[in-house]
Amino acid sequence: MAKHMRWLLLVGLAVCMQASAASAGTLDTLRERGTLRIGYVVDEAPFSSSKPDAKPTGYAVDLCGKVADEIEHVVPQVKREYVEMTLANGFDSVKSGQVDLLCGAVTVNLERREIVDFSQPIFLTGASALLRRDSPDYLQSLFLDKPAPRAVSQNLASTSVIGVRANTTTDAILRKAQSTEISKTRIADFNTHEEGLKALEEHKIDAYFADQVLLMSLAKRAHNPSSLEVGDRLFTHEPYAIALRRDDGDFRLVVDRALTDFYLSDGFLPLLQTYFGSDAPMLHTQIMMEHVP
Fold first, then answer.
1. C-beta neighbour count of 190 within 10 angstroms
2. 127-230 has which fold?
3. pLDDT tens across 46-67, in order?
4. What is the pLDDT of residue 151?
5. Rounded distance, CA 83 to CA 98, Å?
6. C-alpha torsion sign, points 90, 96, 98, 100
7. Contact at 8 Å (CB) between 284 and 121?
8. For 11-20, which contacts have Cβ atoms below 8 Å and span 24 or more sequence positions?
9. For position 180, what pLDDT does the model report?
10. pTM of the predicted model, to two decimals?
11. Residue 103 to residue 123: CA distance in whole angstroms
């Protein structure tokens, strides 16, 4: 009997310890661990990217750095650790506590909010297509704000191949649209945007779909940028934010406060100019209209 009671006591103690750990806030975890783990999604320039033996760079990475500065005021001397992530494992890594922030071209939607929480918006864009100048006419009519150079061929439209990066919101939307229409259009998944660009340039696909701002950066890295066009029509709304743990209002408040303070500073517009050039003033206005005052 005494042995049985000791066993029950140990089980109860273990359950209590697990519950306590689960209820501990991110800031408490950072105090105990002493390290802020910043996850970043690779292959998402100009938001997050990296080179071998170098720190990650990008607009979202820089904003996460501003957040880390604010966290240091709350948790003095906390160290920073950058962890390379993919979209396929990034959200589960936030949920499990492997990383505290997930930075990149991370779209907010309701499905993802079942797993993680998000900061206030850091960018606004939408999905479009990267086309070759000889891509099928129907694609040019859909995505370019100009008449197609030739009559649209419906037969060609039904046999096209379009590319998209796997495990993205754009991938999910394309496949849902495909399932509701009778079409021979095929969707080719790629692990990276660079692979999609290569396939487009080699005529293996007729268009590559992603968020417009990512396509603009991707086109600049093409072998012959003048042979490509980025669509100027958007078919989705993609608000980007920093992903963080769910049900932790104190931590989210620190993150949002850091972002608002930086948005209102003299350094925000120059940062936008660094990554987005002449589009910076327009982007500045958009973000300021959406930010938490």
1. 21
2. D-Maltodextrin-Binding Protein; domain 2 (3.40.190)
3. 999 998 888 999 999 999 999 9
4. 44
5. 9
6. positive
7. no
8. none
9. 67
10. 0.80
11. 12
